[in-house]
Design a protein that fits this description.
This is dTDP-4-dehydrorhamnose reductase. By secondary structure, the chain is of the alpha/beta class. The chain contains ten helices and 13 strands.
C-alpha cells in the first residue's frame, strides 16, 4: 500500500479517486480549496495550489509516494475572461507540484484534456501534436509541458467531457445538467457539430488510480471509449434514462456567442488504455448504465 495525495479532492474526479484509493487500502490525503465537500474515508486538507510557496512545505509534510494532480480551472469561458487566474491554476500550480515530486522522488499523474488539440482532425491518439486554441486550452498544454520538464517519468492523463452523479456542489457537469433539465421535461440545445469523448467520472478516476499504483509514465487517453457528437450523446442518455429524446434540440456552435473557442472534431482514441490498463475505457452504453444507476441510488438515498 502507498501514500497518495490527490489534488482537486472536492472535484468530480478527485473525490472519486480519493474514495477508490482509500477503499483499496492506501493512505490518502485529499487537497482542495476551501472546506471539505467530499465525503469518504480519507483525510482532507485545505491548500490553494496557486500559492506556490505553500506547495512544497505541504507536500513535504504529507510525504506522498504518488500525487494525482486533478486540480484545475476547467470552466472554458471563465478561463478566457480571467487568463491570470487560469495561468495560476493550470500552469503555476502544476509546476509547483511537479517540481516537488521530482525532488522527492514521488510519482506524478497529471490530469489534462482533449482541448490541447485544435479539433481540426480528431479523434486524437496520444502522440498527436497539440495545437491549443483559447486560454483554457493553452494553459492546460503549458501545464502538460511543465509536468514533463519538471517531473520526467510522470504520466499525462488526458480526459474529456467528464460527467457523473452526484455532481460537484454549485456546478453541474454536462451529464448532470442534461439529467436535471430533461427530467424536468425541458428542452436542451446540444451541439451537433462538436465530436467528443464523453467520460464517466468513476471510470476516469479508476484509470488514474491504476496509473498511480503502477507508477506508469507517458501520455494516456483516460476517457470514455466512444467518440460521438453531443446530440448523439444526449439521445443515448434519453434512451437509458427513459427521457423524451424529442427534447434534444440540435444546434451548431457558431449559433452561440461563446467567449472561448472550442475544438469541433475532437475526441480521443483509447487503444493504448484498452490494451495496457486493467481498468478499460468504458463504451458509451455501459457508462450511461452506470451513470443511471448512480442517479437512481442518489434519488433513493434522498427519499429514504
Amino acid at each position: 500500500m502507498s501514500r497518495f495525495v490527490v489534488t482537486g479532492a472536492n472535484g468530480l474526479v478527485g473525490r472519486r479517486a480519493c474514495a477508490l484509493l482509500a477503499a483499496r487500502g492506501h493512505t490518502v490525503v485529499g487537497l482542495g480549496k476551501g472546506v471539505r465537500r467530499a465525503a469518504g474515508a480519507f483525510d482532507y486538507e485545505t491548500l490553494d495550489l496557486t500559492h506556490e510557496a505553500e506547495v512544497a512545505p505541504a507536500l513535504g509534510r504529507l510525504s506522498p509516494e504518488v500525487v494525482l494532480h486533478c486540480a484545475s480551472m476547467t470552466e472554458v469561458d471563465a478561463c478566457e475572461k480571467a487568463p491570470d487566474a487560469a495561468y495560476a491554476a493550470n500552469v503555476t500550480a502544476t509546476a509547483a507540484v511537479a517540481r516537488w515530486t521530482r525532488e522527492a522522488g514521488a510519482h506524478l499523474v497529471h490530469v489534462s484534456t482533449d482541448y490541447v488539440f485544435d479539433g481540426d482532425s480528431g479523434p486524437y491518439a496520444e502522440d498527436a501534436v497539440p495545437n491549443p486554441r483559447g486560454v483554457y486550452a493553452m494553459t492546460k498544454h503549458m501545464g502538460e509541458q511543465a509536468a514533463r520538464v519538471l517531473a520526467p517519468g510522470c504520466a499525462i492523463a488526458r480526459t474529456a467531457v467528464v460527467y457523473g452523479w452526484p455532481p460537484v456542489e454549485g456546478r453541474l457537469n454536462f451529464g448532470a445538467w442534461l439529467v436535471k433539465t430533461l427530467s424536468a421535461g425541458q428542452p436542451v440545445k446540444l451541439f451537433e457539430d462538436q465530436v467528443v469523448s464523453p467520460s464517466f467520472a468513476d471510470n476516469v478516476a479508476a484509470m488514474l488510480v491504476e496509473l498511480g499504483e503502477r507508477r506508469l509514465g507517458g501520455t494516456w487517453n483516460t476517457c470514455g471509449g466512444t467518440v460521438l457528437d453531443r446530440v448523439a450523446f444526449g439521445r443515448a442518455l434519453c434512451e437509458v434514462f427513459g427521457f423524451d429524446a424529442g427534447l434534444v434540440v440540435p444546434t451548431r456552435m457558431a449559433d452561440l456567442k461563446l467567449s472561448a473557442p472550442r475544438p469541433l472534431k475532437s475526441g480521443l482514441l483509447t487503444d493504448k488504455a484498452r490494451e495496457q490498463l486493467s481498468e478499460k475505457p468504458l463504451a458509451l452504453t455501459e457508462s450511461l448504465k452506470r451513470f443511471h444507476a448512480s442517479w437512481l441510488a442518489a434519488r433513493a438515498g434522498e427519499a429514504g
